[in-house]
Amino acid sequence: MSNRQRIYRTHALILRRRDYSDADRILTVFTPGLGKLELIAKGVRKTTSRKAGHLELFTHASLLVAQARTWDIITEAVTVESFRHLREDLDHISRAGYICELLDAFTEAEDENQPLWDLALLALRVLDGAADYDPQLLLRWFELHLLSLTGFQPELFHCLGCGEALEPVTNFLSLQEGGVYCPRCGQSRPDCEAVPPDVLKILRHLQRQPWAEVQRLKVRPSLLRQVENILYRYLLTVLERQLRSVEFLRRLQQSRPAPPPAPQASHG
């Protein structure tokens, strides 16, 4: 606690919340300078509370917080960004929930990570905007950059075995080892699976490019599903548990009629 004053101000993203006592709420928030925090908002469930509207899920708020023994107390909250437009779309709400669940799962208290804060805000701002982009591509890009910023970046450019640069052929992915083996090193490994060259190409592009470059990509849905499948299983391997919001996203997708087939554009 030595890095905080008795009363401190911080920006925060509201990741999760649970009711406590008669009118209070415990909030899990992610901050740029203090990592993940659990804070208490006293009386926030009363109809007269002025703070309630500023402490909704996914809100970017400016908080004034007082140190206390169990949970630090939110004494003042002001909305910086409400992401109002994404809240009008059930798909975007579920995607924002997924982003926040990943942040919650991959961050710790007192663990400053300004680049991760910037990444999360960018992803939510994209969801909140009206630009022409593929939201599935956004989530895959977010996953890979979150993995990089939290120390779990998969090795996609050099063979885990011999260290040689990977060629554009069918290579071999190991989720447990967190990377890819060349055909010579990976073929005989029981923990590896074949990864087609075009799937690896997309994974590599998403991992090393900023969103401004990635958003223009046109990827065949079948390829994007393969990328999603690999990243989802890798996230589960790292976390060693299921992600609740993924099941909700999948149920949403399954409940909708299939879209017309997309033109077979290349991914560049």
What keyword list fits this structure?
268 residues, alpha+beta, OB fold (Dihydrolipoamide Acetyltransferase, E2P), five-stranded mixed β-barrel, three-stranded antiparallel sheet, 8 helices, 8 strands
What would you say this structure looks like, in words?
- The chain is 36% helix and 21% strand.
- The chain is of the alpha+beta class and 268 residues long.
- Among the domains are: 7-81, OB fold (Dihydrolipoamide Acetyltransferase, E2P) (Beta Barrel); 149-241, no CATH class.
- The strands form two sheets. A five-stranded mixed barrel has the order 1-2-3-5-4. It has a three-stranded antiparallel β-sheet with strand order 7-6-8.
- Strand 6 (171-174) and strand 7 (179-181) form a beta hairpin.
- It is elongated.
- The termini are far apart.
- Residues 262-268 have low confidence and may be disordered.
- One of its GO terms (cellular component) is bacterial nucleoid.
Number of helices: 8
Largest sheet: 5 strands, mixed, barrel
* Topology order in helix (H) and strand (E) letters: EEEEEHHHEEHEHHHH
Order of strands, main sheet, comes to 1-2-3-5-4
Spans of at least 5 consecutive residues with low confidence: 262-268
In terms of DSSP E residues, the strand content is: 15-25%
Structural class of the secondary elements? alpha+beta
Helix share bin = 25-40%
What is the β-strand count? 8
Distance between the termini: 49 Å
- Rg from alpha-carbon coordinates: 21 Å
Please state the overall shape, judged from the principal axes of the Cα atoms.
elongated
* Overall mean pLDDT: 90
Pfam family, one: RecO_N
Domain DNA replication/recombination mediator RecO N-terminal: 7-83
Keywords: DNA damage, DNA recombination, DNA repair
InterPro entries: ARFGAP/RecO, DNA_rep/recomb_RecO_N, NA-bd_OB-fold, RecO, RecO_C
